[in-house]
């Protein structure tokens, strides 16, 4: 299995993310040999102001090599027919570089209210949306009668380049999310999970897939990983703790954030690889003013350790 490492800029103030900065991030990714770039999805408010599907169309135009995706799209907030059309267009125009990743979205009920969608039943809504999108990508004409969506002899153009359809990655750390991957997804992209949790989740995904007569590619297990490269773990932690870290009850951040010298950062990635993860989306755990520099340092000092 090949280790592939992409990146996300993480939380940024609105004034920092314009045309020039987005292009600079793409150029950095190409120059340092990152596999992919990922943009956050926050429909209402949020620390990343750009709408990801629109912004990713710019990424597709800026680069001929980087893959790209959203980490992750809040699927229950979106109409699956329109989203399937948008993502198919992105895949078509980028010649197959789209990595669609979806999840249930944030816990804040205000976002659902603002989008005219009930938060209740969001899991079932996401399940049905995944099925609808996959059918639209794979079938010539689709008729569907479901709990949330109705389609009568519908087709979309253009069709995605990736066949039979782009692989659908599903986010989420819960067992319900892991089972959703096994039942409906092609890959798992989890955040704030320790290597031991990735190993456990991987097993549940494969067991669930087997029960549903499906196969999830063992190479499609991924994690988002916060990092900060510094001369010492203590120095890195001091920066990361300045309001950037998102703490989990009962799990210390050192289990799911790579902080310290390049060899320490690479060591945690190696632990994830041993647990069965081969896809990574790294995120600088620092103030916005240092984020681009940290992505450059990671690309210079850590990436080459996995691309020998």
Which labels suit this protein?
single chain; 308 residues; alpha/beta; two-stranded parallel ribbon
Textual characterization of the structure:
- The chain has 308 residues and is of the alpha/beta class.
- It has one domain (4-306): TIM Barrel.
- The protein is built from ten helices and twelve strands.
- The strands form three sheets. Strands 1, 4, 5, 8, 9, 10, 11 and 12 form an eight-stranded parallel β-sheet that branches. It has a two-stranded parallel ribbon with strand order 2-3.
- Strand 4 (73-74), helix 3 (80-93) and strand 5 form a beta-alpha-beta unit.
- The longest helix is centred in the middle third of the chain and has 17 residues, at 122-138.
Domain count: 1
CATH architecture identity: Alpha-Beta Barrel
Q: What series of H and E elements makes up the topology?
A: EHEHEEHEHHEEEHEHEHEHEH
Radius of gyration: 19 Å
Distance N terminus to C terminus? 14 Å
- Average the pLDDT over all residues and give the rounded result: 94
Number of strands: 12
> Count the helices. How many?
10
Low-confidence sequence ranges: none
CATH superfamily: Luciferase-like domain
Which CATH C-level class is it?
Alpha Beta
The percentage helix is 40-55%
In short:
This protein is of the alpha/beta class and 308 residues long. It has helices spanning 19-32, 52-62, 80-93, 109-114, 122-138, 175-184, 195-211, 233-240, 262-275, 288-301, and strands spanning 4-7, 36-39, 67-70, 73-74, 101-103, 142-145, 150-154, 169-171, 187-191, 221-229, 257-260, 279-284.
């Amino acid at each position: 299995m090949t280790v592939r490492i992409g990146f996300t800029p993480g939380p940024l103030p609105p004034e920092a993310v314009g045309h020039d900065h987005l292009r600079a991030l793409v150029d950095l990714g190409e120059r340092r040999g990152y596999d992919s770039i990922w943009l956050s999805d926050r429909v209402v408010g949020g620390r990343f102001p750009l709408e990801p599907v629109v912004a990713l169309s710019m990424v597709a135009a800026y680069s001929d090599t980087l893959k790209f995706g959203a980490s992750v799209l809040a699927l229950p907030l979106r109409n699956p027919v329109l989203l399937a059309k948008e993502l198919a267009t992105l895949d078509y125009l980028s010649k197959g570089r789209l990595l669609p990743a979806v999840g249930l979205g944030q816990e804040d009920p205000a976002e659902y209210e603002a989008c005219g969608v009930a938060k209740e039943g969001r899991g079932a809504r996401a399940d049905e949306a995944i099925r609808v999108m996959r059918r639209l990508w794979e079938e010539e004409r689709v008729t569907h009668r479901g709990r949330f969506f109705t389609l009568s002899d519908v087709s979309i153009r253009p069709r995605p380049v990736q066949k039979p359809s782009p692989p659908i990655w599903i986010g989420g750390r819960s067992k319900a999310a892991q089972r959703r991957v096994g039942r409906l997804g092609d890959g798992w992209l989890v955040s704030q999970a320790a290597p031991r949790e990735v190993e456990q989740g991987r097993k549940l995904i494969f067991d669930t897939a087997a029960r549903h007569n499906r196969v999830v590619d063992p190479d499609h297990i991924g994690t988002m990983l916060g990092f900060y490269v510094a001369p010492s773990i203590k120095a890195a932690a001091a920066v990361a703790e300045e309001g950037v870290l998102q703490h989990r009850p009962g799990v210390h951040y050192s289990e799911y954030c790579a902080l310290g010298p390049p060899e320490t950062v690479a060591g945690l990635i190696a632990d994830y690889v041993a647990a069965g993860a081969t896809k990574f989306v790294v995120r600088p755990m620092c103030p916005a003013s240092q984020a681009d520099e940290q992505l450059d340092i990671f690309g210079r000092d850590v990436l080459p350790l996995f691309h020998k």
